[in-house]
Amino acid sequence: MERAPSVVGFDRITLDPDQMNGQPCVRNMRLTVRRVLEAIATYPDREELFREYPELQEEDITQVLEFAPAKRLPLRRPK
């Protein structure tokens, strides 16, 4: 499987128009930046977050938190 191009300045954020409706994803996984933001809000304890999302790495979280405000992605708080 060919890796989707990463966003300039964010080597872990990828964009593929054929995956997840073209939303920015983490490392070409079917895990959107928006979903990771929601998970961070849901699981503020990193250990719990990584238990729920074992495929994530610390650098993924760092880049998502830097990417989101740069792209002005709104965060929907979980209910």
Question: Your description of this structure?
Answer:
Helix content is 39%, strand content 11%. With 79 residues, it is of the alpha+beta class. It has one domain: Arc Repressor Mutant, subunit A. It has a three-stranded antiparallel beta sheet with strand order 1-2-3. The protein is globular and about 30 Å long. The chain starts with 5 loop residues before the first strand and ends in an 8-residue tail after the last helix. The mean pLDDT is 87.
Strand content: 5-15%
User: Strand tally, please?
Assistant: 3
Q: Kindly name the structural category.
A: alpha+beta
SSE topology string: EEEHHH
CATH topology: Arc Repressor Mutant, subunit A
List the strand order in the largest sheet.
Answer: 1-2-3
Round the Cα radius of gyration to an integer and report it: 12 Å
Reported for the largest beta sheet, the result is: 3 strands, antiparallel
**Share in helix:** 25-40%
Average pLDDT, to the nearest integer? 87
- The H-level CATH homologous superfamily, spelled out, is Winged helix-like DNA-binding domain superfamily/Winged helix DNA-binding domain
Domain unit count: 1
Q: Which second-level CATH architecture applies?
A: Orthogonal Bundle
- The dominant shape is globular
